[in-house]
Design a protein that fits this description.
It catalyses: a secondary alcohol + NAD(+) = a ketone + NADH + H(+); a primary alcohol + NAD(+) = an aldehyde + NADH + H(+). This protein is α/β, with parallel strands linked by helices and about 130 residues long. It folds into 2 domains: about 60 residues, 3-Layer(aba) Sandwich (Rossmann fold), CATH 3.40.50; about 55 residues, no CATH class. It contains 4 helices and 5 strands. The longest helix is centred in the middle third of the chain and has 13 residues.
Length: about 130
């Protein structure tokens, strides 16, 4: 289907077998496999080492490759300077007593991000 393998393969499930399948689906001579899922059963990935010698690459990415110590302060500064518009991703807010409403909205596909207020201070937030 890909005429020799995909240039980029991503594994997001968290199973060693699907990680190996993603790697084996990459193109010989330069295909890259990026592991995003955490192996949920603690199993090792089984890959034929000669396939790496053929130019395939496998790598991981934790939290999208963000470097918390240096990147988070930059992101916070951009947010405070109104350059990074995170508020637009918050679609709903509920008090903790209404947490089931948040799950219902998520299941119905109506919520992108929901803030759950633990102390009932929902009405004190800037974008209400």
């Amino acid at each position: 289907m890909t005429d020799g393998g995909a240039d980029y393969c991503f594994e997001c499930i968290g199973l060693a077998s699907s990680m190996a399948d993603a790697f084996n689906s990459s193109r010989v001579g330069g295909g890259k496999t990026i592991i995003l899922g955490v192996e949920m059963h603690g199993k090792a990935i089984s890959i034929d080492s000669t396939e790496i010698l053929k130019g395939r690459c496998i790598m991981g990415s934790l939290f999208g490759g963000i470097k918390a110590k240096t990147d988070i302060p930059i992101l916070v500064k951009r947010y405070l300077n109104k350059e990074l518009h995170l508020d637009e991703f918050i679609t709903h807010q509920v008090d903790f007593k209404d947490i089931n409403k948040a799950f219902d909205l998520l299941i119905q596909g109506k919520s992108l991000r929901c803030i759950i207020w633990m102390d009932g201070s929902m009405n004190n937030f800037p974008f209400n």
